[in-house]
Amino acid sequence: MNDLYILGIESSCDDTSIAVLYRRKVLANVTANQEIHAQYGGVVPEWASRAHQQNMVPTLQAALQQSGVSLEQLSAVSFTASPGLLGSLLVGASFAKSLAMARNLPLLAVNHLEAHILAHFIEGPQAAPDLPFLCLTVSGGHTQIVLVEDIGQYRLLGETIDDAAGEAFDKAAKIMGLPYPGGPLIDQYAREGDPFRFSFSKPSIPDLNYSFSGLKTSFLYFLQKQVKENPDFIAQHLADLCASLQRTIVEILLEKVREAVRQTGVKRVALAGGVSANSALRQMLLQTAAEQDWRVHIPPPAYCTDNGAMIAITGYYQYLRGDFATLEHPVKAREPLVS
Ligand code: KG4
Ligand code: ZN
């Protein structure tokens, strides 16, 4: 148990990422981004699988080299088993299984959504959240509010009924003619813009669930109307459009978090997933936290977007409780966090 080196392999979407952890400490976390999707305005599953196939071995070699850990020293192999793009998951799972078989290592099958949450437990300068805490997971594929009662014990309080928050950013960016992924670009342009210049419709859903498809439609119709009158409307108002859209998405996200805190009485709020990199979301969450006396936890950006380290830390906890997978373990495109 003392020399626990866990390998983490993430391949659920468009990034191949492999990490080596020594217990909870990251020794290497190497990510090969796939540029190929930008020209198609979104992730093309077929291309993603092929790119994983190409990137997997070089990414492992780089991770081992950076960590200074050899294959012989590894204690276990963890991999993303669900949810995600099936072809992409199959590449990572097959690779992980081959490695585990060749080196006679235990295998750990990880749920990607749980991994986003457990990224908070990676050793670092910030303290891990005390339990229980609320986690808002916001990524390109998911939007959830989860009550984390313990590691491995979760209560799903709400989730999106249509688009994810990252998808809302990316689709709006596409409407404005920006390349994929548009979220970071909207964040960048919004810095120069007026967040109250335009207003877009917000969903009115009574529970803790989210919906972003109405906002996307209202944004699309608004722009179609404006561009008919002035073909240069988007270019002339890009910063204000980005700032106003971003404010709306962040307000939608935080309204439900406020309600979740009210309902549970838990005042520790954590962010997870790629959209946690958004500067307005961070700023408004910190502001709300100061007003409401919440404790906020936001992992470093490298552990917010998809990464091997979060898969390895989840694998680490599974290893400690002896929750190993067999070589027959299936991958699943869909799999809830709480079953
Ligand atoms: O967690 P992640 O890397 O992958 C998924 O599991 O989906 O999240 C990627 C998503 C994309 O939709 C991307 O546009 C969004 O996170 N994103 C952002 C920002 N950085 C990444 N959205 C808004 N503002 C950002 N700064
Ligand atoms: Zn993710």
Polypeptide structure, described:
The model has no long low-confidence stretch (mean pLDDT 95). Helix 4 packs parallel to helix 6 (213-229) and helix 6 (213-229) runs antiparallel to helix 7 (233-264). The two termini are 30 Å apart. It is built from 9 helices and 10 strands. 42% of the residues lie in helices and 18% in strands. It is of the alpha/beta class. It has helices spanning 45-67, 86-103, 112-118, 165-175, 183-190, 213-229, 233-264, 279-292, 308-320, and strands at residues 5-10, 16-22, 25-32, 76-82, 107-111, 133-138, 143-150, 153-159, 268-272, 295-297. The strands form 2 sheets. The protein has a 5-stranded mixed sheet, sandwiched between helices. A 5-stranded mixed sheet has the order 8-7-6-9-10. The longest helix is centred in the C-terminal third of the chain and has 32 residues, at 233-264. The structure holds 5'-O-[(R)-(carboxyoxy)(hydroxy)phosphoryl]adenosine (KG4) and zinc ion. 5'-O-[(R)-(carboxyoxy)(hydroxy)phosphoryl]adenosine binds next to helix 4 and helix 5.
Strand content: 15-25%
Task: Determine the fraction of residues in helical runs and give it as a percent range.
Answer: 40-55%
* Principal-axes shape call: globular
Biggest sheet features: 5 strands, mixed
Residue-averaged pLDDT, rounded? 95
With strands numbered from the N-terminus, the spatial order across the biggest sheet is 3-2-1-4-5
User: Could you give the distance between the termini?
Assistant: 30 Å
Any low-confidence stretches, pLDDT <50, length ≥5?
none
Small molecules in complex: 5'-O-[(R)-(carboxyoxy)(hydroxy)phosphoryl]adenosine, zinc ion
What string gives the helices and strands in order? EEEHEHEHEEEHHHHEHEH
Supply the helix-strand structural class.
alpha/beta
Number-wise, the strands total 10
* Global Rg: 20 Å
Question: How many helical elements?
Answer: 9
